């Protein structure tokens, strides 16, 4: 099994239905809200497309919702993520990476994380900004599976 | 031990039909009782001290729906919003709505969701601008975003005063 996620790899993220994580626009496109990438441990779970047959339905687990995707290279190219002091000056820079974290029931599982790891101080600022950025990256791509209209 | 909910006008309602057997059960019983009350037209004025304007009713309904969310509501281990946080969010959005109207500005209904930590999250969009408000335990914070650059096109902070709320709205609507 690959222990390194190549830059060209596609990463899937499930977006559950009925949770306000996306909104349909009048033109038929679908907005993704930053909460779709929220995580209690600051490590955002994704599934590696190449390890689930490039089949995004793998992520849904028979639940309602949709599947968005990110390109590993785009995630690693995230720059200027920082912890700032009260005056807005950067006091800690972060890189963003992805690593395989296979689970017993999901060998395709991986996690997006920060280097150095986010601490409690980053919960309300740096991590939220990262979620905003990931939502914009996902919106720039087409949905892998569009959710049903609610 | 009877479970009591005290409303803003000092009206108290006793829910004694269920006796919780554990601390976590107490919260669950109370939240279910609140949910029942929230759907009861008789108590709606007590739950929301200010008159419920029609164009805010949909938002308040979405906030009430949060009571039914369970842990792992997003499939990735997210915590269910705490009932107290949901109640605070309902009060906050009503207050914010009144402030916006009194300032003569237009109101937009937000998207309503939650964070993995169980905060209630409101988000508004206008073009490329996004205003996200996080209602947590004893805290209200914001993130502004007007582009992808996290350093130069995003800002965040605490929403601690009416002045901050007003300036955030003016930014969003400008």
| Assembly status | heterodimer
Largest interface: A-B, 33 and 32 residues
Radius of gyration computed on alpha carbons of chain B: 17 Å
Give the overall average pLDDT of chain A: 94
The major sheet of chain A is characterized as: 6 strands, antiparallel
Describe it:
- The complex is a heterodimer of chains A (150) and B (174).
- With 150 residues, chain A is of the alpha+beta class.
- A six-stranded antiparallel sheet of chain A has the order 5-1-4-8-7-6. Chain A has a two-stranded antiparallel ribbon with strand order 2-3.
- In chain A, strand 2 (22-24) and strand 3 (30-32) form a beta hairpin.
- Chain A has three helices and eight strands, in the order E-E-E-E-H-E-H-E-E-E-H.
- The longest helix of chain A is centred in the last third of the chain and has 15 residues, at 126-140.
- Chain A has helices spanning 57-60, 72-76, 126-140, and strands at residues 10-16, 22-24, 30-32, 44-48, 65-71, 81-84, 90-100, 109-115.
- Chain B has 174 residues and is α+β, with helices and mostly antiparallel strands.
- In chain B, 39% of the residues lie in helices and 22% in strands.
- Chain B contains five helices and seven strands.
- Chain B has helices at 23-38, 41-47, 54-65, 83-102, 162-173, and strands spanning 3-6, 12-15, 111-114, 120-126, 129-136, 139-145, 154-158.
- In chain B, the strands form two sheets. Chain B has a five-stranded antiparallel sheet with strand order 3-4-5-6-7. Chain B has a two-stranded antiparallel sheet with strand order 1-2.
- In chain B, helix 3 (54-65) packs antiparallel against helix 4 (83-102).
- The longest helix of chain B is centred in the middle third of the chain and has 20 residues, at 83-102.
- Chain B is globular.
- The N and C termini of chain B lie far apart (53 Å).
- Classes of the chains: A alpha+beta (150), B alpha+beta (174).
- Chain A binds chain B through residues 14, 16, 19-21, 23, 31, 33-36, 38-40, 45, 61, 63, 65, 78, 80-82, 90, 123-125, 128-130, 132-133, 136-137, and chain B through 62, 69, 73-79, 111-117, 121, 123, 125, 130, 132, 134, 141, 143, 145, 148-152, 154, 156.
């Amino acid at each position: 099994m690959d222990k390194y996620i190549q830059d060209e790899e596609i990463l899937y993220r499930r977006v559950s239905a009925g949770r306000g994580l996306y909104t349909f626009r009048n033109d038929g496109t679908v907005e993704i809200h930053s909460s779709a990438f929220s995580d209690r441990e600051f490590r955002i779970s994704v599934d590696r497309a190449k390890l689930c047959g490039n089949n995004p339905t793998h992520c849904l687990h028979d639940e309602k919702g949709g599947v968005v995707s990110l390109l590993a290279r785009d995630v690693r190219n995230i720059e200027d993520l920082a912890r700032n002091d009260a005056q807005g000056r950067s006091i800690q820079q972060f890189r963003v990476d992805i690593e395989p974290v296979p689970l017993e029931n999901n060998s395709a599982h991986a996690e997006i994380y920060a280097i150095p790891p986010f601490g409690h101080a980053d919960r309300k600022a740096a991590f939220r900004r990262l979620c905003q950025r990931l939502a914009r990256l996902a919106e720039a791509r087409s949905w892998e599976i569009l959710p049903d209209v609610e | 031990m009877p479970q009591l909910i005290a409303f803003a006008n000092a009206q108290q309602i006793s829910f004694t039909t269920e006796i919780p057997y554990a601390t976590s059960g107490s919260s669950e019983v109370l939240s279910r009782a609140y949910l029942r009350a929230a759907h009861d037209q008789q108590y709606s004025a007590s739950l929301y001290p200010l008159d419920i304007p029609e164009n805010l009713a949909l938002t308040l309904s979405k906030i009430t729906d949060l009571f039914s969310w369970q842990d792992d509501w997003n499939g990735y281990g997210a915590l269910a919003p705490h009932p107290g946080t949901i109640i605070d969010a309902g009060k906050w959005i009503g207050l914010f709505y009144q402030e916006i109207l009194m300032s003569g500005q237009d109101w937009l209904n937000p998207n309503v969701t939650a964070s993995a930590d169980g905060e209630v999250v409101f988000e508004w969009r206008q073009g490329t601008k996004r205003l996200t408000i996080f209602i947590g335990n004893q805290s209200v914070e914001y993130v502004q975003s007007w582009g992808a650059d996290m350093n130069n096109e995003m800002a965040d902070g605490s929403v601690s005063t009416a002045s901050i709320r007003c300036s955030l709205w003016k930014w969003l609507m400008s």
